[in-house]
Amino acid sequence: MGLMDQVELPKPVKYVFNWGRKYSLWCFNFGLACCAIEFIAASTSRHDFIRHGVIPFAHGPRQADLLVVSGTLTDKMAPAVKRLYDEMPEPKYVISFGSCSNCGGPYWDSYSVTKGVDQIIPVDVYVPGCPPRPEALLDGIMKLQDRIQGESLKDRIAAVRRDPANIGAEAGMALDAQSLHTAAPAELGSGG
Amino acid sequence: MSDLDVREQLLQGTAPGEGLAIELVGDGDLVTADMSLSIGPAHPATHGVFRVVFEMDGERILRAKPVIGYMHRGFEKLAEYRDYRQIMALVNRHDWLSGFSNELGVALAVEQMLEMEVPERAQWIRMLMAEWNRILNHLMFIGSFALELGAITPMFYAFREREDIQHLMESATGGRLHFTYNQVGGVKIDLPRGFLAESARVSKLTRSRMPDYDDLVLGNEIFRGRTVDIGPLPTDVALSLGVTGPALHATGLAEDSRVTEPYLKYGDIDVEVPVGRNGDAYDRFAVLLGRIRVSLDIIDQIHDHMTSGPVNQKLPKMVKAPEGATYVRTENPLGQLGYWLESDGGRTPWRLKMRTPSFSNVQAIPYLVQGQLLPDAISILGSVFFVVGDIDR
Fold this sequence. Notes:
The structure holds two protein chains of two kinds.
Chain A: H1 11-22, E1 25-31, H2 34-43, E2 54-55, E3 66-70, H3 78-87, E4 93-97, H4 99-103, E5 125-127, H5 134-150, H6 153-162, H7 173-191
Parallel strand pairs in A: 1-2, 1-3, 3-4, 4-5
Chain B: H1 3-12, E1 24-25, E2 32-33, E3 35-39, E4 51-57, E5 60-67, H2 75-79, H3 84-91, H4 99-114, H5 120-148, H6 153-173, E6 182-183, E7 186-187, H7 195-218, H8 221-227, H9 235-241, H10 246-249, H11 257-260, H12 281-305, E8 324-332, E9 335-343, E10 351-355, H13 357-361, H14 364-369, H15 374-383, H16 388-392
Antiparallel strand pairs in B: 1-2, 3-4, 4-5, 6-7, 8-9, 9-10
């Protein structure tokens, strides 16, 4: 981030800077399950979160500011989510959309479901519901925008670096994500 | 590392891919390795967390292998720990686009085991909701298929209709996606006042908007160019792979359990089954549009047939299915959905086996994409119509 994570901006500059950031959130939708449908519903004409400055056309995690994890996260999928999150540039925000990604939801006693996406990546806003209504997502987005307006980028980046979820990210979970992809050809060979 | 280095390593057998099942093609200076291309698990064309590994020779696909299980949530095991009321809230989530139809299968299975008679009005309401749910499901696929081929507008049109229908269903059931409206012996509550009039209005509105899709998508030259004769599926192959629903109808076979093995009151009304010619991507899409029109026809017939009376019946405090087993199959929006329910007389099922349409339909993907170009694989993936939760359960 260069200068931003070292220098505290003067108040008026910070205000304008944050105002600009909060209304241009390029959003990467990590659609996993049912909630992804409600996410799409929130982006289409009736609810239309583009009017709030959320742009759901990020080409990938590297162009995104906001990650919306919508749906059930399974243990098999978790390394991929972690990897995508690590690929996003700072400052990055995460909305956990739906009960499954908040805490496991109706699959709280399942053997294959991760009980909450916050076990692997830090989450800024939780939207409850199974699935939540599109209005709930709009509310969550506005909560996040309030948060962005009030924050100091310097503190934010310092806090993210201290977060235990981000320590050793490259060595630990990223390795799993690697094996996820190199495992493919071997499987192909055995399966014919 | 340059291409030349890679080739050199391949010739010496020390390339990074060595030891993996990468075959060398050609000889001498022209030796190349087949490329293995992994699409997914997070890729827009797979609408969900579905992964396919393609083995490519240039742009052409030699082999494909679907890798499933990224959305495995253990439904069948969880069902053994939920009583018969709670199961309704569980099963409507495995195929999240057809929640009502999923509940219906379990409700029918439990009722069959209890030898329970369902009130006539409840049966008509179930049919009405199942058909609205079918339209919701098909609209989603119409929008997403066009989106995968690069057209974003049909998605907005599809959601215009979906919001109206979801609003209608919400007024009766309280849910937008997961309705949990069925219960053993009927439906949860009666329809709200004025529901049928509103349902007729939405049906008329949806019908009046259907030509938009014909003009926007079906008649679109780009769409036709990308789908006509892409991924044709012969009927016998489809049957041997267990493909059902719109993908089977597109091959020209009108096997629909609403007609061939009617459940609820489907025997009392006319159900037309739209079929395609050669089962290519275009036909599969056209069948989907045809099924929406048929569902609207069915809904209009149900409005005429709707009777008055009770919609549910008094249940004991704990519903227990007697010892035994049963199999119920229903025509879900995506194909045949079967539930094998086995009970030992306890408060939860001993086993609930699901035969889900998406799981069988994706078996056709390796056959369909073999020898096709990579961009065509996107039209094939989009037109097989599957929901990842329905594959992995």
